[in-house]
Write a structure and sequence with these properties.
With 461 residues, the protein is mainly alpha-helical. Helices cover 85% and strands 0% of the residues.
Length: 461
């Protein structure tokens, strides 16, 4: 039941993120929303740049550590996290000299990056202290605070700066709540031992985080290429809303599955036999692939209803034109970044992760830039980016195939049928009565896939 609660918590986070995007798009003018979107995307990139290596290293090493070793590793993680926060402020301040954004927006973006990085790191240590339920609750609490803070700032001031201030306050609430709810055990280390831990973190974490930074740069680069053509207009805002909105469900679902399953996969890889390790990884892959396929169908099926209900009219047409292509792109992007990378992470093949990420960035940049130069629509540019990402996925599957952790095709087929059924609901009329029927059909199809796969292991002993 704890796994079910954890998934429900992540679904709640996804819902609040979607509501936040819709609410902010209504409360801010198109120009302010575009500035807010660019600042937030840049903030996320900086956060990954400075903290992702620590999260990846902590997840890889803490998951297999005993109590005393875990206390030692946590001390090293937190010390490195504080140094990374200081470095982020310095690097971000220098980079801001070349940014077209206002100084107050840049400062708030840096604050959001620091607060998010430290909060995520602390929540990770809570989860790896066998407190999955508490970690899920704190993540849901932070999501609520982010929504409340951002909407309050946008409603009171109507500016991008006030909205970013509200997001910074939301992260602060989450961090303070985590510190109050759980005091993770620490063991103070001498400098030499801490430097040894940092060396281990860097050897694995830096390269793996570099791959994450490159992957995160892909949608940011795609945004700049397309917005450079559309400008700060209603069409540009609609495309930005699609990029902001549709990445969240995939990102949150991936984070939920990794939070639930990846520590067990690491433990089985380090301490279990080959058969147990392969079986554990296969179950995780089935969980990720089937749920994201159904999610893709759900997004396509319900995009018209959500857009007509929640989006401002000036951004509606651009959003509807690009949203299905953007959803497909994020589906592929998520699996390249998360699913295909699991086995290389287990085997600590961090250099391979960087090569794969760099290959995606190069192919997406070339294909989307050529599409825009050829006069294709934003939907065409995103479709070219999706094709480039699919090519990289095929080329990067080698370690997973050799590891023999390929998901069962029957489960994938069932999820695909459910996704097609749910996606076809987009052709139904946009009326409240029809919407209720669509929700019921989608819920039943999703329940069948979840029951067939038993992804939460509710039927396993």
């Amino acid at each position: 039941m704890v796994r079910l609660f954890a998934v429900a918590g992540y679904v709640y986070q996804s819902a609040t993120a979607i509501i936040l995007i819709f609410a902010i798009s209504h409360l801010l003018a198109a120009v302010d929303y575009t500035s807010f979107s660019l600042a937030l995307a840049s903030s996320q990139l900086l956060c990954v740049l400075m903290f992702e290596w620590l999260q990846l290293a902590g997840l890889r090493f803490l998951a297999a550590a005993d109590d005393r070793e875990g206390a030692r590793l946590r001390w090293s993680l937190f010390a490195a996290g504080l140094l990374s926060a200081c470095a982020l402020v310095v690097v971000g301040a220098c980079a801001s000299l070349m940014s077209p954004l206002a100084t107050d927006i840049i400062a708030l973006g840096l604050s959001v990056a620091v607060l998010q990085g430290l909060t995520d790191l602390y929540f990770l240590t809570i989860r790896l202290s066998d407190r999955l339920g508490l970690a899920s609750f704190l993540l849901a609490l932070r999501a609520t605070a982010l929504l409340g803070g951002a909407v309050t700032g946008a409603a009171l001031s109507g500016t991008a700066a006030a909205t970013l201030l509200g997001i910074a306050c939301g992260h602060t609430v989450g961090l303070v709540a985590g510190l109050i709810a759980y005091r993770t055990r620490l063991e103070r280390l001498p400098l030499s031992a801490m430097l040894s831990d940092w060396s281990e973190f860097c050897r694995y974490g830096m390269l793996a985080a570099g791959a994450s930074v490159i992957h995160l740069s892909v949608p940011v680069l795609l945004r700049f290429i397309v917005i450079g053509r559309l400008g700060a207009t209603g069409a540009g805002a609609g495309f930005s809303i699609a990029l902001d909105l549709l990445q969240r469900p995939f990102w949150v679902l991936n984070a939920a599955i990794h939070t639930i399953s990846y520590p067990e996969v690491v433990q089985d890889f380090e301490h279990g036999g080959t058969s147990r390790s392969v079986d554990s990884a296969r179950r995780m892959f089935e969980f990720m692939v089937c749920t994201t396929i159904v999610l893709l169908g759900g997004l396509i099926g319900f995009i018209p209803d959500a857009a007509h209900i929640l989006l401002p009219r000036e951004s509606l047409d651009s959003f509807l034109a690009t949203a299905p292509a953007v959803a497909l792109f994020y589906f592929l992007h998520t699996h390249l970044q998360a699913t295909v990378a699991v086995v290389p992470h287990l085997e600590k093949l961090a250099t391979r992760l960087v090569i794969v990420a760099a290959g995606q960035l190069a192919l997406v940049a070339i294909s989307s830039a050529l599409a825009v130069a050829a006069g294709l629509s934003p939907r065409g540019a995103v479709a070219c980016a999706s094709i480039a990402t699919a090519v990289v996925i095929v080329l990067a599957l080698g370690p997973t195939v050799r590891y023999r952790a390929v998901p069962h095709t029957i489960l994938i087929g069932q999820a695909l049928i459910a996704a097609i059924l749910i996606g076809s609901l987009a052709s139904m009329p946009i009326e409240p009565l029809w919407l209720a029927g669509k929700i019921l059909i989608a819920a039943l199809a999703t329940a069948v896939v979840a029951w067939r796969g038993d992804f939460l292991m509710l039927a396993r002993r």
